[in-house]
Amino acid sequence: MKIYIYQIFERFWHWMQVLLISALAITGLEIHGFFELFGYRNAVSIHDISAWAFLILIIFAIFWHFTTGEWRQYKPSLKLVKEQINYYITGIFSGAEHPTNKLVYNKFNPLQRLIYLGLKILVIPVMGLSGLAYMYLNYPNQGFQLGSLDSAALIHTAGAYFLIVFVIAHVYLTTTGHKPLSAIKAMITGWEEVDEKGARAMVANEMEVALKITKARLKADGNKSELLDTALAETEARLGVKKEEKFRDVVANSGAGYFRIDPNGIYEEVNNAWACLYKFKSPEDVVGKHYSLSRNKEEFEELEITFNKVLKGETIPHGEVTRICQDGSIGHHTVTMTPVVKNNQIVGVEGFILDTTARLLAEKELLENKIRLEQLLNDRDRK
Amino acid sequence: MKKLIYLVLIVFSFQATLFASPDQEASLENQHKLKLINYVKKADRLNQKVVDHGKFAVLQQEFKRPQDVTLACLSCHTERHTEIMANNHWTWQRTEKLNGRGEVSVGKKNILNNFCIGTSSNRESCTRCHIGYGWKDESFDFTEKENIDCLVCHDLSGVYKKESGMAGYPVEGINLNVVAQSVGSPKRANCGVCHFWGGGGNNVKHGDLEEAMNNGTKKLDVHMGTDGEDMSCIECHITENHNITGKLYALSSENKNRISCEQCHTTEPHSDALLNKHGLRIACQTCHIPYYAKANSTKMWWDWTSAGRLDEHGEPLHEADADGNHNYLSIKGTFVWDQNIKPSYFWFNGLADHFLITDSITEIPIQMNTLNGAYSDKGANCKTTGCSKIWPVKVHRGKQPYDAINNRLVQVKTFSKVKGEGAYWMDFDWNAAIKAGMEYVGLPYSGEYGFVETEMYWPLNHQVSPASQSLRCIDCHTRSEEGRLASLTDFYLPGRDYNAWIDNIGIILIILSFIGVVVHGALRIILRKNCLHD
Ligand code: HEM
Q1: B333-338 and B298-303: which strand pairing?
Q2: Surface-to-core class of residue B462, CB atoms within 10 Å of its CB (0-12 exposed, 13-18 middle, 19+ buried)
Q3: What does the DSSP 8-state code read for residue B447?
Q4: pLDDT tens across B166-210, in order?
Q5: Which among A16, A20, A21, A24 is the best mutation to test ligand 1's pocket, defined by most ligand atoms within 8 Å of the CB?
Q6: Which structural domains are found in chain A, ordered by start?
Q7: ipTM confidence score
Q8: How far is the CA of A119 from the centre of ligand 1 (A)?
Q9: What's the pLDDT tens digit per position in A280-331?
Q10: What is the pTM assigned to this prediction?
Q11: CA of residue B479 relative to chain centroid, distance
């Protein structure tokens, strides 16, 4: 199954970076005195032009990341970093499952996130600033000046080595995807080959982002069902669902549930998706009831604490919770709760839930597989 | 996908055109658009004679003495002598601040160099290059206007010549009417007769000023080449009221009355802004005088120690090297000459110091005329005189006598017409020669002499090469030991300098990451059979 993960700007940005960083690295090393290729003056010209193009590209990219909310992809998290490292050191050889299936949490795995973030906030500003210092503080006749170029030049050179090492490792790691070339193909076409499980998780993730964005755009008392539709549409667009028939259902089925609860804990409104997830026939069966109906005892207490916090004005981002459905079965979802404000007063709590049951089931299955495998191996060893 | 390819193509072609342009522009510049101010090209000048000195009766009289010519000149050009008398071509001294040492009066009259050492006590010979008649000792009257030699500078007949050892008087028997009626603005040969021959031979001293430039090509000197603009000296050394602009730091110390390339070429002569920026810290001469002594050799080493060896008849010797340059003279010692030389490079801010005859020796080799400057000199001097710039320099080294007890350089009497006066070139007796020289300047001599190594610095300004032969980026921006700036190490020069730690660690990291990739990838392939799932 293919999903659309890199948008046109991202791909343009990426390949421009490839071009510019290669040009900068090659001409930079010529300037550094390692070899003669373009001729010194030409190398300097190419380096200067590419440097400016690179700086402009960085500015566009920053702008794009903030307007689209994609900067979240780089939010660092230490969760699973160790597993990711272990995977590259050992797991990958035995064909183990990716500990952070590329799409479960994010486009980038936690290790990637850390490295890209480091790259962005360290090397690029460092290269950019030392490079600009190199350009403008080099003939020190007046004003602010460097004693000599060496400080800027040495930082710049050291940064260049880091960047080159990064590029080598990065290019290699792109071959560790679903298939060796699937990541590279994805960066060219935008479409990445993933398995269905991954796709589902991806949808959940994208929905969350889309909901947050659309919600921020709508007024507090706007029409919630409209909000959901917009978020759904946006997720579809971003994932290129329209091109993949099979995929439509995934999005439709993982539609987020919406709920609103009054200060006394009584459901005022839920949408169809919500009712569906809880296996009620229709929203009417829920409205007017207390929220305790959906939890077991411990989980209820937890929910109560959260609920009261939100009533005081806090927004609680998605925690993962277990729900008890109408028929007694158990499901899992993430939930985001925000206060409903009217005339400067908190008049209730609203939120979205996103189903994660499929993923948890998958993880459980994986764990069971693992145990089974270990047993098999143990048995074999004993024989 | 297609879009992407187009984009890449656009970016590449954009870069290709941009980085191709400097070269093209450079060649265009050569042919057409040399930027010039304050200069009218030869082709655009009106060439009309405005005066014919042959028609003046006063120049048709019979001249008994050369002084009579001077008086005839001054009868029309009244008061010009006052201008001459203020000129250091006449005084051979000027009062200037030595860098960091207050005001001193220095000039050819009293300074020491590491060629013939000094003019004191040898005037009769040295003043052959003085613009006067009769300066043979200290009795010379600098206020007597008839002693001015107008002809040596203004003769255009080519007939005029000063006699050797005759205190500036012309050779007997020259037809002074022919000479006087030929006069006009000085040409290269007029200046050259002294400035090409300083140190007693063609191109001995400067290395970038010599006889061949009277009739050279653009390749030898792009300004003076007869196949080009054919410029005379005074077209750059602009002279008003006999004040000749231009300074040479063999004698000068202050940053004034200089001429510069910029006076015609502006501070932004290149179409390439990056090159113009180089001009902030690099003198034009540095790139545009890639070699000096391009036609004839110049002296690089003069060792007085070996002087005095005579042949079996007690006569002085002359020995020449394969190029015909004398490499040994009994009167002067041993020489090394060289041709087509790469200059040495120094930071220089237009201020110089001089080693005076009264200075004690504190370092060896002695710097006869220390050029002041450093990369870091961009503060105080920037405001008044401009920053230190990298400058091409001829360094002339040698060994010359000094007072071993008083630890000072000495004046030596070298010239005399007769034996027995102590002149070295007659008697070959160092002690007597030094004694006579020091007596002349009124300084003590201990009686013990030795030889000490000295260096003298001659910033280069002439023999500018055509643009196509100027230095290239990589002549300096290179790691090679042969790099032009290999020994000017007080600053970071891209392409030449690096930090060995950073480079080594960087390269090791790159190699390790390659090895890592190869090993990891190989393991993945080898162990693929272990895979559980597709
Ligand atoms: C936005 C970023 C950058 C700017 C503004 C910049 C600017 C400069 C400048 C001004 C120079 C001096 C030579 C010249 O005038 O062209 C230089 C040298 C150099 N650059 Fe960059 N550069 C940038 C990015 C990079 C990157 C990404 C690399 C390598 C991956 C790189 C590698 C080098 C190297 C190795 C040198 C030679 C340093 C030396 O030997 O002193 N630069 N850069």
Answers
A1: antiparallel
A2: buried
A3: S
A4: 999 999 999 999 999 999 999 999 999 999 999 989 999 999 999
A5: A24
A6: 2-193 (1.20.950.20), 196-362 (3.30.450.20)
A7: 0.85
A8: 16
A9: 888 888 888 888 877 777 778 888 888 888 888 777 765 677 788 888 787 7
A10: 0.78
A11: 28
